């Protein structure tokens, strides 16, 4: 009932009812208070009925507004007639000239005019109020729709920003990984370049000395010894070329994570192959080899990079051994293969090796780029071993330098 605005309707009915009291008193209706009060109540009820019927007309009929006003006024005229006919036997509205004495058509006209007059007061007020209320309701609805649309756009924008942020974070993560991989490649390539300059130094020194001696032998016509030295130089050059090939293979793009080609590598065969490269240097220093490896022992790794590791470890051992034995052995412990390369320690240990006195307290080597660069080979070994998932340590224990590599995939032990 809230939409009928009953409080305002009751106020309007009361004002209209009370406004005619002075006129009725002037007509002498105060002599019959019962009729006066009763007719006033009837008029008040008629005003309320007119108010409610006008609201019903406004809401129930789907007509243009001017047609609704005409229908509402017709209802006002009809209500005026109905209320008089229902109450005239009990209360007198016009005591100076009784309505009963007039013809019916005149009564109808007078009552209709009274209803129209009342309608002209109430109907415009109702229509103006409801039109304004609907306008405000429509404006509120549009505002709510705009707010809802803004919320939807905000939600879509937030999702779009979230997606773009996620894409940006993913791109930044990818760029970060690419940068790390690039830095890793540059780091390894610098080590390869340093190793090329470092690892060919000893073979080249031997080749230079051998060629000089060969020249002297040729000058003294000692052809057999000259031929023997020439064969040694040839083998040294071939082995050095193989080392260079391994290093170049490493530098040609196999340093991407997961891009290394693995194969079964025979440890005894590759160890003998690498040992031949240092055979002349070994003999000139009074050293000997002792390779104690099963001929069928193989490991699953990259052959080229394993060759680089073994070359650097053997180079380190031969450079720091005089009149001693370089022992190469292997054992299985904890389901993993341990490969050892050990040589007698000297007073001048290679850069990057820490010395310990107790057998049960080994010290893992620490990289240092200082001195004459003797530690470059070990740095390269460490980096390549990490790339191949090989655990690598080198330690000085009880007068020996022991390099250890641990392989997870092996067979033929």
Automatic annotation (TrEMBL):
Q: Can you tell which superkingdom this protein's organism belongs to?
A: Bacteria
The residue ranges crossing the membrane are: 41-58, 70-91, 111-129
Q: Does the keyword Magnesium apply?
A: no
UniProt keyword NAD present: no
Q: Which top class of enzyme applies to this chain?
A: transferase
Q: Which residues form a coiled coil?
A: 133-160
- Residue ranges constituting the Histidine kinase domain according to the UniProt record: 195-413
Q: Which keywords does this Swiss-Prot/TrEMBL entry list?
A: Coiled coil, Kinase, Membrane, Transferase, Transmembrane, Transmembrane helix
Cite the EC number.
2.7.13.3
Under what name is this protein listed? histidine kinase
């Amino acid at each position: 009932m809230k939409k009928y605005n009953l409080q305002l309707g009751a106020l309007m009915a009361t004002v209209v009812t009370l406004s005619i009291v002075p006129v009725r008193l002037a007509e002498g209706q105060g002599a019959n208070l019962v009729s006066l009060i009763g007719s006033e109540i009837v008029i008040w009820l008629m005003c309320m009925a007119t108010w409610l019927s006008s609201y019903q007309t406004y809401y129930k009929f789907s007509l243009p507004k001017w047609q609704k006003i005409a229908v509402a006024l017709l209802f006002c005229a009809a209500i005026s007639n109905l209320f008089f006919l229902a109450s005239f036997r009990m209360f007198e509205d016009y005591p100076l000239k009784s309505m009963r004495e007039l013809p019916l058509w005149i009564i109808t006209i007078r009552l209709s005019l009274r209803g129209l007059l009342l309608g002209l007061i109430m109907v415009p007020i109702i229509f103006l109020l409801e039109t304004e209320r609907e306008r405000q309701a429509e404006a509120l609805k549009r505002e709510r729709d705009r707010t809802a649309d803004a919320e939807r756009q905000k939600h879509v924008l937030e999702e779009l920003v979230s997606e773009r942020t996620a894409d940006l974070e993913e791109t930044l993560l990818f760029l970060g990984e690419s940068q790390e991989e690039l830095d890793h490649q540059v780091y390894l390539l610098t080590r390869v370049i340093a190793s090329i300059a470092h690892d060919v130094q000893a073979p080249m020194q031997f080749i230079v000395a051998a060629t000089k001696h060969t020249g002297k032998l040729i000058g003294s016509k000692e052809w057999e010894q000259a031929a023997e030295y020439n064969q040694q130089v040839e083998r040294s050059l071939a082995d050095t070329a193989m080392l260079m090939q391994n290093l170049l293979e490493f530098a040609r793009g196999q340093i991407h994570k997961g891009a290394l080609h693995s194969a079964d590598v025979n440890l005894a065969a590759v160890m003998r192959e690498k040992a031949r490269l240092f055979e002349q240097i070994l003999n000139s220093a009074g050293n000997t080899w002792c390779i104690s490896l099963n001929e069928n022992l193989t490991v699953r790794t990259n052959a080229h990079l394993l060759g680089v590791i073994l070359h650097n470890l053997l180079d380190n051992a031969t450079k720091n051994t005089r009149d001693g034995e370089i022992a190469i052995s292997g054992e299985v412990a904890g389901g993993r293969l341990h490969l050892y390369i050990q040589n007698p320690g000297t007073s001048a240990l290679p850069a990057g090796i820490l010395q310990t006195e107790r057998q049960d307290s080994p010290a893992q080597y620490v990289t240092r780029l200082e001195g004459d660069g003797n530690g470059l080979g070990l740095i390269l070994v460490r980096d390549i071993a990490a790339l191949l998932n090989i655990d690598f340590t080198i330690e000085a224990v009880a007068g020996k330098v022991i390099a250890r590599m641990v392989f997870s995939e092996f067979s033929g032990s």
